Amino acid sequence: MSTNPKPSYYQVGGSLTNNAPNYVKRQADDDFYNGLKAGEFCYVLNSRQMGKSSLQVRTIQRLRSDGIACAAIDISEIGNRGVTPEQWYAGLLRILENNFNLSDVVNVRTWWRDRNFLTPVQRLSEFIETVLLVNIRTNIVIFIDEIDSILALDFPADDFLALIRSCYNKRANNSEFDRLTWALLGVASPADLCREQNSSSSTPFNIGKAIELTGFDETEAQPLAAGLAEITDGSGEVLREVLYWTGGQPFLTQKLCKLLFENAPPPAPPCQGGEQDLIHTPCQGGEQDLIHTPCQGGEQDLIQNPGEWVEKVVRLKIVENWESQDVPEHLSTIRDRLFRENQRIVRRLGLYQQILEQVEIVPDGSAEQMELRLSGLIVKRRENLTISNPIYEAVFNQKLIEQKLEKLSPYSEAIKVWLNANCEDDSQLLRGDDLQSALVWAADKSLRNEDFHFLTASQKLILSDQNQLLLAATRETKKAVGDAAKALTEADAAKQKAKQWIGIGSAVLVGSLIGAIGFSTLAYQRFKLAQASIEIEQNGSDALLLAVSQKTENGEALSEALLRAIASGKRLKVLVENKPRLEQYPATRPLLALQVILDKITEKQQIKASSLSQIKLNWQAHAGAVTSVNFRPDSQILATAGIDDRVRLWNFSGQKIAEWKALQQSVNMVIFSPDGKFLATAGRDSTVKLWNLSGKNIAKFKGIQGSVTSISFSPEGKFLAVAGIDSSAAIWNLSKLPKVISSSVKLPGHNGLVRSVNFSPSGDSLTTLDGKSTVRIWNLSGQLKKTLPVQAIGISFSPAQQQYRFATVTLNGKVGLWNLSEKKLVSEFETLHLDAKSISFSPDGERLATVGIDKTVRLWNLAGRQVAQFEFEENVVSVGWSRDGKQIAVAGSNGTVWLRQVEGLEELLKQSCNFLSSKPEYLRRVSTICK
User: Fold this and answer.
1) What is the pTM of this model?
2) Which of 132, 419, 447, 734 could pair with 451 in a Cys bridge, judged by C-beta atoms 3.0 to 4.6 Å apart?
């Protein structure tokens, strides 16, 4: 570390000079140079500020040193608006004349005017063939920079690109053209070039060699460490942190290095030994930064924690108030391209939103994908599209995209009026083609609650939360009526049977009558049970409807609804005294009503959280989406992972216990081992890592090629199944940790990425779910036992081994329960999700949690009756169950984690009665119902 830092070593923006010490040589440097030297047409088409111009400067220098004549044409300098074809092509000619020093050979003005009978492109073609190639006898390379500028010309540019193509084609008949090579650089895709739709002769620009210009990696970027060495002895570690934040993006990397250089703490004075307090600031409130380091004499390096220092500079100097600090412009340019108005803007933003949420998107060359890639926001990594770097992710976040989509909504005015009318103005609901267009628009997006309710009301399929509940109640009522009718039929049959025995001997008659009467009594009891169930279910539905009604969003109405729910819940309690399993409940609407109403009361802050035993916490857990939540077995610890590449452990109060950086680019999944002694994380960088609870890395191995999407421990913890985007899944042996043994067991044959892999509770089989929604069942030898006839989006095993069940959920929300041993569908039911995302069993196997795009988690019993519903402010990424099944943890797309209590009927009744008992106006009625 130097005692006298020099002026900034870094350059932000613009082309670097030939000998700039901070130039970073990449693979593209050699690829571009070697291709052009060999006479190949080359093009470098990439996002802005990736170092294309500096690459051109260096390449021209290298080619000229080899005796190759070069010309550099910046198309943007010629202009594009208000320029005629005559002026534009003449401008190209003048630049060629100047670059190749042809003024002594030809008078361009005269030469151009003498050929007025030719079109401008014909004149340029003739100039190249009769003047340039004749007078320049060496090999020639013409660089066209900012080639995308031709797309903004007032006239078609196809002729110019066709000219370049013709130079290549003429090589077959004229060897002079072997000496002429073209290089194109700009922000465009090959599909953008020669795209004039009205020209029948235009063809795609499909000649030449594509030069891939990627961001800096750590090895390539070492020249940048020299500047950092002026301010810290740990320049290598600081550079590593810089590259993490910038993703190696050249402009951002130079800028962040420059900011670190300019904001480095001043050198500390020499010390004489002992421990020295290098930074000591009187505390005036807030945090105090004290860094102590043993003094060995000499000057001290104040940068003791590079990670925190770099993160702080990124936050204060780049991300926060970024629009005022974006000099030279970089983020503003990306914003303008992202929000550029065209017919694809909604699809473009919807696609970016999916990538933000870590949906696996495979590049397909679509227009919206290319627009995002050319903006620089996303890049292709390991066969998938991903956000280029954490800085972009922090600036262009979910909140910003949601605000923009709100403004772009095709029904923005209609929904505004509808919401202002308390959702009662049906004239604003969409119909016919308008509704169809809106549904197409919404198909690939994560909707706000308001959008979801508006569209469902418009569809008339699920009119609103109120009508959804009514329809569900109607279905269950019909089922109960059917049970009652069956019971009556059995009772009538019993009576007829009794009559048939009349006239038979008295002894036989008495015995027969006793049997018939007993049978009749049983049938009558079943009838009465069905009748009571119908009434209880309907009363619970009435209470729920009153609570969710837009007309009764007040405390009095909620209390009245709660009173009704208590009454129906008390009746249900009597019916289920001898039915310990939730699946056997003849009605569940009272449970749902009690839970939803108590939630609403809590949200309105009518009661203090301490007066309820239910846990209802939320906290900001990560910067960006929380990708995974998982409870430690038999412990009050929760693990979370995020796209910020962090793993964090929390207690049930939301207090952080431990934290570490996984160094896996992003952590897709975190799970505890069955004994709870360590964790496994699945990384976007193709690795799987094992950690102890303090964050020490126990083992690491490369699970697949590309991002690891799913991991699963066998029940005894000896094996770990791994799946990913490369269509593969495999089993790894953990019996000799810290050594991880690669198993010969592979699970092949998947279509696209493998979404999930799961061990069965018995550990003798696994399931995989691939990108085509196909479910496969395997044994531990890797043999395929069954492919299920279902297109699933999620799958979950029942932890209760005696049930031998697993559940699937389809994209349209249909849940299927399967017998694992027979591999057959046992039952199925519909959920209320328009677009389901996942499903998970509770540890006791009694409940199922389903997640949809409506930011809602719903709980069901195994008979398909809803027992709970939790609504959230963000898109739900994943759900985890505590070991006792009494809590669920929910991961949000904007970094929030929620903890919710899952209550049974007894506890819900107790809380409800306690609340109403505290209200004097309800005391008399409550004392009667709750006694």
Assistant:
1) 0.53
2) 447
